[in-house]
Design a protein that fits this description.
The complex is a heterodimer of chains A (199) and B (462). With 199 residues, chain A is an alpha/beta fold. Chain A folds into 2 domains: 45-86, no CATH class; 95-196, no CATH class. Helices cover 46% and strands 9% of the residues of chain A. In chain A, α2 (39-62) packs across α3 (64-83). In chain B, α1 packs parallel to α3 (57-78). Chain B is 73% helix and 1% strand. Chain B has one domain (2-81, 114-442). Chain B has 462 residues and is mainly α. The termini of chain B are far apart. Classes of the chains: A alpha/beta (199), B mainly alpha (462). Chains A and B meet through α1, β1, α2, α3 and α4 of A and α5, α6, α8, α9 and α15 of B.
Amino acid sequence: MATIKQKHIKSMGKHNSNKNYKPKSPPQAKQPQQTGISPAGVVKNIALALVAGFLLSKCLEVQQGYNWAYHSLLKGNMATIRAYPNLTIEQRNEQKLGNDYAYLQFVKNSTPEDAVILYPAREDFFPEGIESPFKQDIANKTFGLRFLYPRKLVLPSEMETNRYAKDITHVAIVNGRGLERLKYEIETPIEHGVLPLNR
Amino acid sequence: MLYLGLFLTIASGFIFIHCLSVKFTLIEKAGLSFPLGMALTCFLMLLLDQAHIPLAAAPLLTTQALLVTGLCAFVYFYRKDAFASLREPALLPSLKGANLVWLLFILATAYAEYMNFSKCMYFPPSDRDSLTAFDTIGYIAAQEQTFKGISLFDASYMPDIHGPASSITYAPLVQLSYAYVYALGAATSKIIPGLMYLCFLVAFYGATLRVAGRTGAAVATFFVLLTPEMLGFSSLSMTNVIHAVFASLSVIYMSLWFRTREKKDLLLCGALLGGNILCRTEGIVFTGAVMLLLWVDALRRKQYRGPALSSLLAFVPLVVWTLYSKLNGLYAESIAITHPFWDAEKIGTISSYMWLLYTNTLYYGWTFIVFLIAFLANLWFLVRKRDSLWLLLGIGLSMLFYMMVLYQIDYKWDTIHNVMSYSSKRFLFCFIPMIWYFSLTNHAVSSLFRRLEQFLVIRQTR
């Protein structure tokens, strides 16, 4: 039985006999027998490595894209990681998603797992003419579900089509909107929160 | 349990590569094990889900253990050289011929990837596309232990789920891989993009090393890693970079097949194309381009067995995913225009946006500039000796097919300007590794690096 090495040599032989042009194999296969370290080789290596290192650092400074990638994206984020190494997942989520995550966590902590929540519409999260504290795509139902699951969400536009529309237990309030969906009056209006549908 | 799952995933990929061939270098095997193992795992998850077996930790780990056993049996009976290959000097990493320039680029790559991997693992998924689709689907699939039947795909709960461009039709590899790690107890899905990119860099280096030599391979890998927009997306839980892993490596292994005519590269190319189509539906452009070239060559040479096996590996996942979608009602309003039409304005819009992307050095660094220089430097060898011809054809055809797909889309969920402005920059990720591969492996440039390596030999010779 041919060994792997023999098979490898055979396949290389086949490769060389092909009439089509083939670039040469990588250099290491053809190197002469080695005996010891050459001082000239070491000097050449150090000199060229210094040149390459200089060019590399210049490249990271001069080219705007690489500069951003290295200094802002990699080193900038590493600085954050080193500054806050022990944050919990929740704190990291809040760091990234800000008020959006804080609001969803509040809703999650204020409702039971089997709650069916009337979720605010996009125009409630981002009302025209008012600066909203929300920044991300929180108005997207799937986005909300990522943090509120297994609670069910129903959008105001889905009252006719969503099978859970009749089972709503809670109403989410944002920017003071959604209070009119409650089946009772509240004495002190709230800006952001979640309330039971029925008193 | 998560560590056991990751071990089984890597083991299944590692043994699967040996099923294709034992002659890949250890660097290639190390790099490809996780992506291929994850693709195999997700493929199995589709089958389990279709058989109504819950996608929970115990069934998943048991199935993976069975898969590893089956693959081991195949290797034992049909690849008797597998164990010897792990000790075969030609296939092992070696420091012979190493030089300080190579070491500098390897260290720079390792340091940059260390920072990138740390960033990826530290921050939970926070980008819009992950939280409104991939990550959430994976998370809920793990909670509900099914993919086809998850509440997110229930039209009576999510009334818009069958609307145009809905996430219900997204190819499943990324969502299923997230479901897998969530099912095994992960707090976030970030281990998947983190390991994918890390392993990709190793695999890319291993593949490039076979042609460009160590210094060229290290330079190419460093610049692929540092491509600004791709680096930014590599630590997010989105599909584009993971898709680029499969798509770019499949075209690279196709070109290795044309270069060396070793069947292992052809089979690996097919397997990677299979993973590519499970990542994103538009992966069909790479499958189409590669298959066209492989079959033109097969007809010319009248040798069909290798391309047929490769096609099988490429198309089986596509067929299974299509059947799975049909059987389980995973459909959405079509956004494809299926009849031919002529719209000069649309062509102009797509071309002008693509040109803006090619010339955008903020997104892609020097990728396209280096490509142009390498192309011109190698023009003589390309014309006279057809050097890297098949690779260039693979890149060019895939790019053309991509533009055709963009042309045939009916932009009814968004404007073409928005899609081209914000999404198309990510479509080019697949081409970045191919372009750097070409730039460092073509005859003109690789000859230069060969001379450089000979100049930098440290050890004295007799």
